[in-house]
Each structure stands twice: as C-alpha cells, then as structure tokens.
Amino acid sequence: MRERTLPIFAGTVLKDNQGNKRVGELNALAYLFEFLDAYKFDRDELENPQEDSEKLINASVLGLIFEKINGYKDGSFYTPSLITMYMCRETIRRAIVQKFNEVKGWNCQTLDDLYERIEDKKEANTIINSLKICDPAVGSGHFLVSALNEIIAIKSELRVLLDSSGKSLKDYRVEVRNDKLLVYDDEGSLFAYHPNNKEKHWVQQALFHEKQTIIEGCLFGVDINPNSVTICQLRLWIELLKNAYYREDGNLETLPNIDINIKCGNSLISRFALDVDVKQVLQKQKFSIEEYRNAVQTYRNAENKEQKREMETLIAKIKAGFSANLLISDPKKVKLYQISKSMTDIHARMLAKPAFVVTRIKKNGITSITRGTL
Fold first, then answer.
1. Taking the CA of residue 309 as centre, how many other CA atoms within 13 Å lie in the half-sphere pointing to its CB?
2. In sequence order, what are the residues at sequence separation of 6 or more whose Cβ sits closer than 8 angstroms to the Cβ of residue 277?
3. 136 backbone dihedrals φ, ψ, rounded to 5°
4. d(Cα 130, Cα 124) in Å, to the nearest integer?
5. How far does Cα 157 stand from its chain's mean position?
6. Cβ atoms within 10 A of the Cβ of 124, count?
7. Which of 26, 53, 108, 155 might form a disulfide with 161, Cβ 3.0–4.6 angstroms?
8. Is-contact 118 181, C-beta < 8 A?
9. How many CB atoms lie within 10 A of CB 202?
10. d(CA 7, CA 299)
11. DSSP-derived pairing of the beta strands 219-223 and 133-135
C-alpha cells in the first residue's frame, strides 16, 4: 500500500493551496491520511454554522457505517434522524403522560398539564425513569439515542432534570435539535463544559448522571446481527462520553458497563411462551430476583476486569439455572421429552431383534450400521 499510487477522485474533498480540487495521483497511504484529515470528527455544525457541514462527522456516522456493512447483505436500513425524532417525540411524550396518570391517578392530556400538577420533582423524575423502551430490531441504536435525547429534553421541560443529589437544573434549558441534545443557560448561550468552572462542572455531572440512569434502566435493544449490537453499544457509550467529566484526581469519570441491556437474539421467536408461569420456577431457583438485580448493578459499576468477569459468570449461571427450571416446568417440553424417550426405547428394542438387524443389513448394506440408518 505504501508503494501504490491512486488517481485522485474527481469529486474529492481534497483542495490545493488556492482552494481548488486536487488532481493527479497520490500515494495510497498519503491519500488515506489526507482524506481523513479533511474531516472533523470532534466538532458540531452548530458550533460554527458557517463551516462546511459536509466535512463534519459526529456519532451518527456509526449508523451509516452500519448500513454500508450490513445493508447489502441482509437488507438493514439506517433510519433517518427526522423519522426517529418524530417517532420518539410523539410516542414518548404520550407514554410519560399516561405513566403519570396511572401512578398518580391524574387525568392529564399534555406535558403542560403535567407541569402544572407536579410538586415533588424527585418523585416525578423517578416516574419518568420507570419507563421501559425496547427496540426489537435495534440496528445501530439510532432510535434508542433519539429516545435518550427526548427523555432528557422532556425532563428539562417539566423542570425535573436533576443531579445525583436531587438538585434541579432549573436555570438550564435542554432541547433536541437536528437529532442532537443542546443545552442552553439562562442567557440563551450554548453550554460548553469547562472543568475549572464549578457551575459548568456541576451541570456536566448532572447530565452524565441523568444519561447513565436512563441508559441503564430505560433503554433496551435486541438485534439478530452481532455487529449491529456492538455498534449500538458503542453509540450509547459515545452519548454518555459526551458528558463525561473530570474527577478530583484529574481523571475522567469511568464509564459504566452499559452493554448488558443490548442483546444479540431473534425477536421473532422465543424459547418460552410469553404467558408462562414463572412463580414455581423462581421458587426452585437458588438465586432470587433481587440477587440477580444486584449482580447486574455490580456488573454495570465494575471497577476492574476481574470484577466484571466475576459478575458475568454469576449472571450466566443464574440465567442457565432459570432456563433449565423453566424447561422442566413447561408441560409441552416435558411431553416432548417423554415422546422422544419413548421413540428411543422403541428403536432400541427393534435393534435388539436379530431378524430386524439382518433384514436391514441385506437391504442397506453393512455400512448402514455405522451410519445409524438401522
């Protein structure tokens, strides 16, 4: 690759000193580096509207990569931002209003109605955090990211966006624009994190806490493609990383293990019926549901690889035991096992008869014994 030269693409983004498109040929490796250098991976078009937006790359590029890698093979499609924003805005706002009506016994119709009735901000924040959103074909995670942004914006609109101690970010306004989460102060200026600024450091911590809480407890996804699952997990990490803050020791806050909510599987089929009674199964388990939840929480906040690996083993053990007991408790599975055992016994008795064996050998040949075709 170092020795090979490539003709410069006619529609290239590379420019010469006069601002004209480059022509001719370049060394392949140099071409690659100059091409990547022409883009900005750490900026947003909203920071400088005059800058060429085509040269700005943000986290959503992972979705485009996902579509190019998987799309031609299995028909995967990257849902445009306009669609995911609309879906989340229309559905999540209604779901939150419905959730408050169920919990509080209200009859609110809009978020404005909720805003007028909310008195306990901590309780309201907890009610919103009880929402569960699952994308059964999660792909690159675009819908979940849009859902995360919408929930944060709704909390801000209801004035229940809180830090870890319950203090409200009442002087800050959060909104979703172009599928991005934007934070404004009371003067209308766009928020930018500065570690040495106490107020901005506090806001960054609060946003990190809120995002982590929502990602860990509200957002779930499944996809049959393991590559898609990995991209989705990475994309959620990036969203959390946007609000990572510096601790007192000068290091960035450690990102939690948020990958446990995104699983690889087939959403169209299930090993167990949705209405299966799990009460008897739970009674047979050596581990309780509470122990499982504690293991998951410990896994999310694991401080080192050893602790993470230990929790992974424990969680796998609990799941394996639950699945085994559920299979035993399923009448259909028990009946299938009994039928299979009966067929095996009948086959064994037939093989025990010399006349049957001789007949089969004459018909199929001696090799049929080793192939199991008797």
1. 3
2. 329
3. -75, -10
4. 10
5. 25
6. 23
7. 155
8. no
9. 14
10. 50
11. parallel
Q: Which long-range contacts (CB under 8 A, 24 or more apart) does 341-348 make?
A: none
User: What whole-number distance in Å separates Cα of residue 120 and Cα of residue 116?
Assistant: 12
CB 236, CB 63: distance < 8 Å: no
Q: What are phi and psi of 39, to 5 degrees?
A: -105, 160
CA distances from 2 to 14, 15, 24, 268 (A): 19, 22, 17, 48
CA–CA distance, 291 with 365 (Å, rounded to integer): 58
User: Can you give the pLDDT at residue 339?
Assistant: 80
CB 203 within 8 A of CB 183: yes
Structure tokens at 237: 């990490």
End-to-end CA gap in the chain: 59
Rg over alpha carbons for the chain, rounded to the nearest Å, is 28
Check residue 46 and give its pLDDT. 45
What per-residue confidence (pLDDT) applies to 58? 59
Looking at 132-179, which runs of residues are DSSP E strands? Answer: 133-135, 173-177
| Tokens coding 15 | 């420019």
Contacts of 193 (CB under 8 A, 6+ apart): 200, 201, 203, 204, 243, 245
| The Cα angle at residue 169 between residues 168 and 175, in degrees rounded to 5 | 130
Q: Which two tokens stand for residue 148?
A: 């995360």
Spell out the per-residue pLDDT of the chain, length 374, in tens: 456 788 888 878 788 888 788 888 888 878 877 877 776 654 444 444 444 445 545 556 666 666 566 555 666 666 788 899 999 999 999 999 999 999 999 999 999 999 999 999 999 999 999 999 999 998 888 899 999 999 999 999 999 999 989 999 988 999 998 888 999 998 889 998 988 899 999 999 999 999 999 998 899 999 988 888 988 898 898 888 889 898 888 887 777 777 788 989 888 887 666 666 666 666 666 666 777 778 777 777 776 777 778 877 877 777 777 766 666 666 676 677 778 777 776 766 666 666 655 566 556 555 544 444 44
Angstrom distance (rounded) from CA 281 to CA 333: 14
Q: Count other C-beta atoms under 10 Å from residue 150's C-beta.
A: 24
For the record, the structure tokens of 60 come out as: 């959503």
